[in-house]
Structure prediction request, 375 residues.
Amino acid sequence: MESLLLTSVNEPQSVSDLITQPPLAPAIIQITADEREEITSIGKYLKRKYGSYERADYIAALHMNAFRLLPERIVRLLNRLGTDFSARQYGAVVLKGLIEVDHEALGATPASWREMDKERIVEYGFISSLLHGAVPSKPVQYYAQRKGGGLLHAIIPDAGMAWSQTGSGSKTELFVHTEDAFLFNAADFLSFLYLRNEEQVPSMLYSIRSHQQDAAVLQPLFAPIYTCPKDANYAGQEAIGEGITTSVLYGNSKAPFIRFDAAEQIYNTEAGQSAGAMEHLKAFWKEARELIYCDFIPESGDLIFVNNHLCAHGRSAFTAGFRNEGGNMVPCERRMMLRMMSKTSLLHIQQVAHPYNPYLVMEEHYGKVYTSVQN
Ligand SMILES: [Fe+2]
Prediction:
């Protein structure tokens, strides 16, 4: 059954399938009880051995630990995501039931990410980082998000940010976007580990691979004419930046990569798109919206692993702290998710990295580096 799951979505059955059937959904891999137990105990073991997943000696040995410790089936799966960028690759995979979450040890969901006791999520940081290590890819942090804020970010609905287009929002749909579409050096891979989703919020994924290869709406997106303001954590002129334009699609013309943020590039009235650029974006979005996959409702312990060049992510609107029980909204613990980002090459981000921390990306907006920060 498991091998069937592995091959059912992304494996072409024949050459003609490869050409005629774009992937429309991520593979959903059911993690076995043995694998889950193994992974959970690896997290505890690494916590005992290293204490912190941000320790230099742990990160330096990340790939060795990933290949040595993780179940082989999971390593192979992630290796494949790190090497297959073909027309048949959806660009995301769901690891269902990856870990056992100890809800008592985790405690109540804090008011926002600022109050998160990082000690309570250390094991999950080790597990997430090992998965990135298996790709292989190296966990990094971005000054543009939480001024770095560590390699693992708790994503928690924040009452004060409920209407925002950010991870802290809840009351509006978070439009699909590739992470940090306003940077040239955005993450290559993302992981989203769900500790709680009692509100039953569906996650959204959208893959550039889901279009027909010769879709007319794609070609204009290779032109470097599109603006992308910084995300909703910024406002006004600070968000618009220097008005640099770039392409939405790049790389192979038949199997492109994507850098796209629907909220910032289409719905942000201050984005400063030209009329022509907006026309192309809207034509593309009309087709893309129909290809969004939103059938997956993450449960506690599930993880979504994403190639940020192929697949955008988002989520439906929800009422934080309430779940629907037979038509009645009853209180529940608020949603909590852990995000990690990684780059496959540290060498290639050093022109925008912090001089004393090669894992901290200091890019502010399309190649521009923060200048007002003390190094
Ligand atoms: Fe995001």
User: Anything to note?
Assistant: The chain has eleven helices and 19 strands. Residues 1-9 have pLDDT under 50 and may be disordered.
